[in-house]
Design a protein that fits this description.
Layout: H1 9-12, H2 20-40, H3 54-63, H4 75-90, H5 95-105, E1 109-113, H6 114-117, E2 123-128, H7 136-148, E3 154-172, E4 175-186
Parallel strand pairs: 2-3
Antiparallel strand pairs: 1-2, 3-4
Helix pairs in contact: 3-4, 4-5, 5-7
Length: about 190
């Protein structure tokens, strides 16, 4: 079976039309069609986002209904948001969608729900092992979370988590602790 790229008009011409002028014309048409075929892939913006102009990527935010947009995002982050927008819309309002949106914008963030830390029902925090951002970055995190979260859920803020390992073991009854988790909160 031949692929459309390998097909030539000469191959499908009936023998009654196979004179030299018509065969030369069909070869010329084949060359033009091959050039057009090679350029078709460049028309798929979604497939070639990495190779398009940044202005086109910005326009695709509107076309793909991406919830969060900021001009200070890198091109890679913008492309990641566009590629994940459909899945994020399908799962919007879930902890997965919030975590996915945060990881599209920044790296190293995850969700900690109320039942994991003993908070009030339907509350959650965003946890990072990185340094807690301040200023505009913290405002962007809050904006992205509020756009993506369930309406009944309450965002309590960003917390920093660090695991501190110690060589000293403390024993309390039958429990031995050698690792500690230090959490610093900033709202």
């Amino acid at each position: 079976m031949k692929k459309i790229d390998d097909l030539k008009i000469r191959d499908i011409l009936p023998s009654s039309l196979a004179d030299e002028k018509l065969l030369a014309t069909s070869d010329g048409i084949d060359r033009v069609l091959k050039r057009i075929n090679n350029k078709i892939d460049k028309c798929y913006f979604y497939k070639n986002l990495e190779n398009t102009y940044p202005e086109i990527v910005d326009e695709m935010f509107w076309e793909w209904h991406v919830d969060y947009y900021s001009e200070d995002l890198t091109l890679d982050k913008k492309i990641k948001l566009i590629r994940n927008s459909y899945v994020n819309h399908l799962r919007k309002g879930t902890p997965w969608a919030v975590e996915n949106m945060l990881n599209d914008i920044l790296d190293g963030y995850y969700l900690l729900e109320w039942f994991d830390y003993g908070g009030k029902p339907f509350h959650f925090k965003v946890v990072t092992e990185n340094e807690i951002p301040s200023g505009q970055v913290l405002a962007n995190i809050t904006k992205a979370v509020n756009i993506t979260k369930n309406i009944r859920s309450h965002f309590e803020g960003v917390v920093q988590s660090k695991v501190i390992s110690s060589t000293t073991n403390y024993q309390y009854g039958n429990y031995v602790a050698s690792n500690y988790t230090y959490i610093q909160e900033r709202n």
